[in-house]
Amino acid sequence: MKRCVPVLALSLPLTAFALSTAAFAASSAKASLQSPQSLTVDIYRATENGLGHQMGEVTITESAYGLVFTPKLKELRPGLYAFHVHVNPECGLASKNGKVDIAGLAGGHLDPQNTNRHSAPWDDNGHLGDLPPLYVDEKGNATLPVLAPKLKKLDDVRGHSLMIHSGQDNYSDAPDQMESMGARYGCGVIR
Questions:
Q1: Do 160 and 110 meet the contact criterion of CB atoms below 8 Å apart?
Q2: What is the CATH number of the domain that holds 118?
Q3: Is residue 52 domain-resident?
Q4: Nearby residues of 24 by Cβ (< 8 Å), 6 or more positions away
Q5: Rounded distance, CA 104 to CA 95, Å?
Q6: Number of domains, the chain
Q7: Residue 129 in contact with residue 111, Cβ under 8 Å?
Q8: How far apart are CA 79 and CA 95, in angstroms?
Q9: Which residue in 17, 38, 59, 129 could disulfide with 109, CB within 3.0 to 4.6 Å?
């Protein structure tokens, strides 16, 4: 003789599970809207006449290992570029010793601990804003993510600027920090 399980007895636990799952999903969606875990920065070409055309964007995302900077940039020469978070939320021109300082209003590298040292992006001996290099492929596009282990939260970078220099970074102050990285090439304000 076959036993029949009443449908009502099975449907009550399934309904309770479905309702609790829907409530959890709704509360998670609301929480993610209230506290976004990423932000996007528009990057513009820095020139002696001010900011030029938009080169693309960089999305900054929180991860368990640090902030991840995911570029979508184009029209760059292939190779590695110095990449940093700068102090001020500005990308405009400044004047230095009577000369135009391209994107000079961005200030120096983010350095809240006042180390006054340019250093590797993975140690605690230098600027907080020292990032790993930005890689540009043979077609002139930068799309590979960059992990910044010293930076943990979006609030670490919000209210500052993101800078791409025209050369590679030697992560040293010798011979001269600016000579090793090249001119400021692209800039965006992190809001």
A1: yes
A2: 2.60.40.200
A3: yes
A4: none
A5: 7
A6: 1
A7: yes
A8: 30
A9: 129
* Tokens (6 digits) for 152: 């943990």
Q: Is residue 184 part of a domain?
A: yes
From the list 103, 142, 94, 147, the residue with the least C-alpha distance to 121 is 147
**152 neighbors 68 (Cβ within 8 angstroms):** no
Instruction: Assess if residue 70 is contained within a domain.
Output: yes
What whole-number distance in Å separates Cα of residue 190 and Cα of residue 48? 21
Token pair in block for residue 144: 């590979």
Q: Which domain holds residue 111?
A: 38-190
Q: Which amino acid is at 116?
A: N
Written in H, E and C, the secondary structure of 87-128 is CCCCCCCEEECCEEECCHHHCCECCCCCCCCCCCCCCCCCCC
Residue 15 lies in a domain: no
